[in-house]
Specification:
alpha+beta, five-stranded antiparallel beta sheet, 51% helix, disordered N terminus, four-stranded antiparallel beta sheet
Length: 486
């Protein structure tokens, strides 16, 4: 496996990290800069435009309209609108009524071209059953979702076969939802800025390690050489293609890049916490294979869900996961089981590493810094997820509704800013300092031995472990006298 060639080999001499040379004041400054950069993106997002643009059409119901199809025309669209949703909410004339009923709807999607003709989209009429759930007010129903826009306007005919049986139905509100064109422009610019920044950080990190052999890199440095190029893909330099090509491919490519980077980040945490503690030969079968297996299952589940949704929506704009509830429930349970296994395994590795290496100099520093920064990032991510999705994140139809729950640009920029600045911070502290090459050449001087020792020397001790930090020549003279007396 070519990928494993960049992973750490046994008993290698580590290239010095900037982490070892930072004082407490410098550590505080690193965290302060991280929070300032992240807070700046959040404030820019708060001041930015709303992500979703809505257009509401309310229809009062009477006996004749309950039987006739609703003819709905979308607002004028451009490629900057990216996607289109049509949702509906049934309003009851009695607020104390609670009901759950399956409603059959027929949907026909027509695209309006420049000459005024309206060809079919997918050349068929779609029949779907939706659950109408009302408790004081009825839940929103997604009628159709178009993942990419081939036309500048759409006409959608919607009819409900069982709507005449709802004696309490007062009116029905249809809502068009699209991406705000202003937000699309903001997204393009910020993705471009993050792509440029990531490219610069990647080049600077590689430049700082150019004088050291790859076998001398630490486990964190080797993983950063993998994560930074993947972060470049996570920011998606091909994102503008979605505005130039009317196809589902750019969107699926973006989903693939995001899932690949996030799963690589999960694998990075497992390998680092295990590699710091376990020294010696690390066999692929026993060391790396279980980690690849767990994270690979998570990646496979996320990619399968994304491809499944995209392919079915291209074929049928009315498709939702609830249509295939049995398979989706099985996929969701599988994903949760694997995610729980990963979390328990990671917690086990963290506890073992911290308990065994807490008194080891330098190694303890690496553990504390990575754990502290990662904990901060995870807490912020959980808060953002809760604010974005709330309790609906685990509902049956949550995947189909994720993209409609952005409220403002802050929720978008916070995720991208958080992960980008997290990797930039790690790249800074794991890169060698300016004098790293000079320090590595002083390896024979015991006064510098701890700074440049391998993991084995730090954990199991070295010949100079108990030496006081004093003039190297005097120390050698002392040991020479002792050896002569022996």
């Amino acid at each position: 496996m070519a990928f494993l060639s960049v992973l750490p080999s046994a008993s290698c001499r580590l290239a010095p990290m900037r982490l070892y040379t930072l004082s407490k004041r410098h550590f505080v400054l690193v965290f302060v800069v991280f929070f300032i950069c992240f807070g700046l993106t959040v404030f820019i997002g708060i001041a930015g435009p709303n992500v979703i643009e809505t257009s509401v059409a309310r229809t009062d119901l009477n006996n004749s309209l309950k039987l006739k199809p609703f003819n709905l025309s979308s607002p004028p669209l451009s490629t900057y609108n990216q996607q289109l949703w049509l949702t509906c909410v049934v309003e009851l004339d009695q607020h104390d009524v609670s009901l759950k009923r399956n409603v059959t709807m027929t949907v026909k999607v027509l695209g309006v071209v420049k000459d005024g003709s309206t060809p079919y989209v997918n050349n068929q009429v779609h029949n779907r059953t939706r659950l109408l759930s009302c408790a004081q007010k009825c839940s929103e129903i997604i009628v159709a979702h178009l993942g990419y826009l081939n036309y500048t306007q759409y006409n959608i005919f919607v009819s409900f076969e069982d709507l005449n049986k709802l004696t309490y139905a007062k009116n029905i509100t249809f809502t068009w939802k699209t991406y705000n064109p202003t937000f699309s422009q903001v997204e393009i610019w910020f993705r471009f800025v993050f792509v440029v920044l990531t490219f610069m950080v990647t080049c600077l990190f590689a430049h700082s390690l150019r004088k050291f052999s790859m076998r001398d890199w630490g486990i964190e440095q080797k993983w950063m050489s993998i994560l930074l190029p993947l972060l470049l893909l996570y920011n998606d330099p091909f994102f503008p293609l979605s505005f130039l090509v009317n196809s589902w491919f750019p969107g699926m490519l973006d989903d693939l890049f995001q899932s690949l980077f996030l799963c690589a980040l999960l694998l990075f945490w497992l390998c680092v916490y295990h590699c710091i503690r376990v020294q010696g030969e690390r066999k692929c079968l026993t060391f790396y294979l279980p980690k690849f297996f767990i994270v690979g299952l998570l990646w496979l589940a996320s990619v399968t869900l994304g491809i499944w949704q995209t392919v079915n929506e291209v074929r049928d704009p009315t498709y939702q996961y609830r249509v295939d509830t049995g398979n989706f429930q099985g996929m969701k349970i599988f994903f949760l089981v694997v995610a729980t296994t990963y979390i328990l395994y990671l917690l086990f590795l963290i506890v073992r590493a911290c308990s065994e290496l807490r008194n080891m100099p330098y190694v303890d520093l690496r553990l504390k810094f990575l754990t502290a920064l990662t904990f901060i990032v995870l807490v912020i991510s959980i808060v953002i997820l809760y604010l974005r999705f709330g309790a609906q994140v685990l509902q049956d139809n949550f995947v189909a509704e994720l993209s409609t729950h952005y409220q403002n640009s802050a929720e978008f920029l916070s995720f991208y800013g958080l992960l980008n600045f997290y990797l930039y911070t790690l790249a800074f502290v794991y890169s060698p300092s300016k004098n790293a090459l000079y320090e590595s050449q002083l390896k024979d001087n015991p006064a510098f031995s701890m700074l440049n020792d391998s993991d084995d020397d730090v954990i199991y001790g070295s010949d100079y472990e108990e030496m006081p930090l004093q003039n190297g020549q005097a120390i050698r003279a002392k040991y020479k006298e002792e050896s002569d007396s022996d």
